[in-house]
């Protein structure tokens, strides 16, 4: 930058010639003896703030004394966020995110004033993680609002938030949050290292971050948990985990994660321990039903009908009379139809989406039975499988189980019940070998940690859960209270 206002403005105009939304407002201060100018972007900068706290005070309250950056910052401008810069390129970057640049003739420095216009969605209940009992607040797309929700949870000076920049062409703010006196330093440093290595033009959503920092991109299982609920994030931080918040998305990320954690709901802890344990056991059972029921149907019908009770086997075979397809093709027809209906229900407008899914499923199932394409027992199997998949709290886990369900069906069609067992064993081996930021994905089952089983398949009373998970190697291993 130069000391001449006209020279600086000439350079700024040359750079902003392709930015039609960037405005330059020239005016005079110190009784008209000194020229000045502000640079701001339409729709990003708060014009009321510019008028009241910049233009008004500069044009009315600045006398004919020597004007310096220190005087303007400490005696004139009534704005809390002000920084000094010497680089024209830095000015343009700041202006294009909503800040205002102030140039004064005779000064080789420029002031960057925080005038970003805040237009954020109100705090609403998360749509994807609805609870019967629990807080009704959820994250929104503004990073400052999300960090404030974490701070408002309670007075806690150990809640640390580290700011980082991600994205090469469209830079965004990212926050790494953790409890300083609880989280393992090695996990925190590993999160920082992986985030700092992200090399991509733009990150429009936290899903990009999730895919770029996960341990094994070939695994169907998510190794990072995403959530819209601040209470879930706080609970994870209190256990010693680390949260990642990205500007522009309401979904926060939690690491490290285990498979059992993805089948848990915050409501498990808000209800009494017996109710929470029952609901959790139902979810684990529903996950197995969703994964294996169609493949077990295929294996029993095609390879092992002798394992079915006689009366039931006769009834099933009677319903299959006239069905022209094998059990595999029959199951694939219904499963693919259900997946198409599920996807269509998600993409349609909200008022008609759920109705279309339910009505479409009933109509297709009834029509397929009447046409003799599928058997009635298969319609029941597919319906139970679909309903079981809806109990999974995490959408990404439900998708993983739906993909693996088709692999299990082909294994059953090739080798019968032995194929299903072989598939399940290979899946268990994969889960046991998988890790999330150094923490075993199958923990606390493998490696076996008895103390962590108090919050595994069953949720023990809160009075018995006095220690934090051993798998996280926390600094403070005992919960307060």
From TrEMBL:
Pfam families, per the entry: GerA
Top-rank taxon: Bacteria
Record's keyword annotation contains Transmembrane helix: yes
Family from the record: Belongs to the GerABKA family.
PANTHER family: LEUCINE ZIPPER PROTEIN 4, SPORE GERMINATION PROTEIN
Protein's name according to its UniProt entry: Spore germination protein
Keyword set, alphabetical order: Membrane, Transmembrane, Transmembrane helix
